Amino acid sequence: MGQDKDIAPPHLSGPHFSPSELQGLLSFLCEHGAEAVVYGGGGELFTWSGAFEFLEAVKKSGLRPVVFTNGTLLSQPDVARLNGLGTSLIISMRDTVEAWHNRAVGRDGFRRTLLAIEYALQEGFHLESRLAVEIPVTKENETRVLDEFLPAMRHVGIVPMAEEYIQISASSDERGRCHTFTETRSFFERARAKDAEVGIHWELSFGQRIIGEPKCSRPLYSFAVFPSRDVFDCPSHSVCYGNLQSRSLYDVLYSDRFRQALLGFTFCACSPFYTASDESIPLQLPCYLRALK
Ligand code: SF4
């Protein structure tokens, strides 16, 4: 996490990883056939003075850096430097309207975010599918996502990462603005029709919570390590499998518990997702999600 990692829940916070800890993690990944390291957010990476050195260490290990960022701290030379490292950038927006984006993030960063996207286009990130823009979809911005964001992204060749708003740590106020399952169904049907207008076709599938993507299976192929050294199945921290202060990463990931989780995986959900009908909403969902029916 970046310097503002203290905004993480206190039980997940902790000191920055030391160079030797990082090297240990990177070596483990290389030995296990990983291809990329995702900086998953929870604080803007580029508020940390060690951000570029970290990404250079990732690259030097033979892995590809993938970075979620709001882009506001990135200058043109920074974006060129990231391009030199083969970085994939996922730039976060909250709305297509400046005032509403700024209100949602609590600061005036909209234009700087757009500039970062512009710099990345100039560098040609999109030509190698290394540029995505993520936007969480709510009742408030749904129409703009469909009518403005999606066509604009398709037009310039940026991957549109429009996803249902993650509910795990959302306040009750935020949850009130999020889609229900019925609204999610309608959103994905409209998104598919919108993409079809420009010749882009994808199928609606159970569990889908991001445009054009199948259900999330992230726990099957990745894990997340927090500053607390807790190892989770995902940065949206659904299940903790152990802590690196008391166990090695090898022991955590080769444990029976982790193995059983992989073998028994069916789906995971941190937001409502596409279901063909109300009857296909799984009964075993947490109650805060089932309440969104
Ligand atoms: S919490 Fe589950 S559904 Fe959400 S991003 Fe993580 S793995 Fe995917």
Q: What can you see in these coordinates?
A:
There is one protein chain. With 293 residues, the chain is an alpha/beta fold. The protein has a single domain, classed as TIM Barrel (Alpha-Beta Barrel), CATH 3.20.20.70. Helices cover 37% and strands 13% of the residues. The chain has a five-stranded parallel sheet with strand order 1-2-3-4-5, covered by helices on one side. Strand 6 (224-225) and strand 7 form a beta hairpin. Bound molecules: iron/sulfur cluster. Residues 216, 218-219, 234, 236, 238, 268-270 line the site of iron/sulfur cluster. Iron/sulfur cluster binds next to loops.
Topology of helices and strands:
Blueprint: H1 19-31, E1 36-39, H2 51-60, E2 64-69, H3 76-84, E3 88-92, H4 98-105, H5 110-123, E4 131-137, H6 142-156, E5 159-164, H7 172-177, H8 181-197, E6 224-225, E7 230-232, E8 240-243, H9 249-253, H10 256-263, H11 287-290
Parallel strand pairs: 1-2, 2-3, 3-4, 4-5
Antiparallel strand pairs: 6-7, 7-8
Helix pairs in contact: 3-5, 6-8
Bound molecules: iron/sulfur cluster.
Which labels suit this protein?
single chain; five-stranded parallel sheet; 293 residues; alpha/beta; TIM Barrel; 11 helices
